[in-house]
Amino acid sequence: MIDIKNLRKTFRSGRETFHALNGITIHVPEGEFFTLLGPSGCGKSTTLRCLAGLETPDSGTIEIGGETVFSSERGISVPAYRRDIGMVFQSYAIWPHMTVFENIAYPLKIQKVARREIRARVEKALDTVGLEGLGDRPAPALSGGQQQRVSLARALVKEPKVLLLDEPLSNLDAKLREQMRFEIKELQERLGITTLYVTHDQTEALAVSDSIAVMNQGNLLDVAGPRDIYFQPRSEFTADFIGLTNVLRGKVAGSENGLSCLDTPMGRLLCRPTSVAHHGGGEVVIFLRPEDVAVTAARPAGKPNVFEGEIEALVFLGEVVDCQIKVGEELVRARLHPKSAFQRRQKVFIEADPAALITIRAH
User: Fold this and answer.
1) Own/partner long-range contacts of 225-234 (Cβ < 8 Å, ≥24 apart)
2) Same-domain pairing of 276 and 136
3) Is residue 93 a contact partner of residue 165, using CB atoms and an 8 Å limit?
4) Sheet holding 293-296: strands in order across?
5) Which domain holds residue 153?
6) pTM exceeding 0.90
7) pLDDT tens digit string along 220-255?
8) Is the pLDDT of residue 81 over 70?
9) Are residues 204 and 322 in the same domain?
10) Tens digit of each residue's pLDDT (9 = 90 or more) over 43-55
11) How many structural domains does the chain have?
């Protein structure tokens, strides 16, 4: 449905040159919810704006539904208004002098759609996003979540092939943002519309996406489903960027009972065999999620990857206790049950399941 090939974009300001996109290639199948995830300045919004026709790439090819909308080689650049897309901006871009109905109807009026059809399609869009009966209300009289729905309805009223969402939840409070994640995902699945979503929020990306593309400094680093991105990242940046994690440096030191041995500042760790294991003495980066760190008052018997430490800090967060444990010279984070009875300065033992360790060859 969406095919982006070798897309490059450079911005220039005076003598400075910024390479926003370094030849990225993306394929989004029809009906998929595809998310571009990365820190500010990584190129995700630039990619979206190039797809929408709001930025002109330096080179590459963009196809939407089999139609080429940009090709530097063939000299094609279809203007934004002729691309079969609907777009929701971060700011919602709601016109305050218009009613809800008028905001949603605007794209159809521009296309000179018949008045009767406009009313029918706007009413359908209002119903789709849960705003039925609010068409005559002034747009500024709506809550933030309702304004978000108006923006969605306006993007959907054209019945586009592709829906583009540029950090649409960033202006909402935390509770409403969580609610809207479920609503947007449910709406996308119900409509079956191909969706490209941009966010810097890892939790948001994991919650709504079928596939996630992690970007950094204009490069595409990983593309996979949410679980694979989280549990089996292919790049050091992705492993560190997605969620909280403990990062250790180590060297491969052979194998034991079918597991790879890694020498680390904390001591010897056993992990699942990986390609790294075939390079004796090779340096690796080890990632251990806080939720995969088991903390006990007594040493577990017969378990691998057990280390003694001392609790440095405990922070109660309601649903969990964020715990920091000093093991040698390393500070290890763990997530504890909120009713756990551990105390600061208490001697404890931590255990790391070999299957939970993520290892990536150091560069």
Assistant:
1) 230/206, 231/358, 232/358, 233/287, 233/358, 233/360, 234/360
2) no
3) no
4) 293-296, 347-352, 306-316, 321-327, 330-336
5) 2-240
6) no
7) 999 999 999 999 898 999 999 998 899 999 888 888
8) yes
9) no
10) 999 999 999 999 9
11) 2
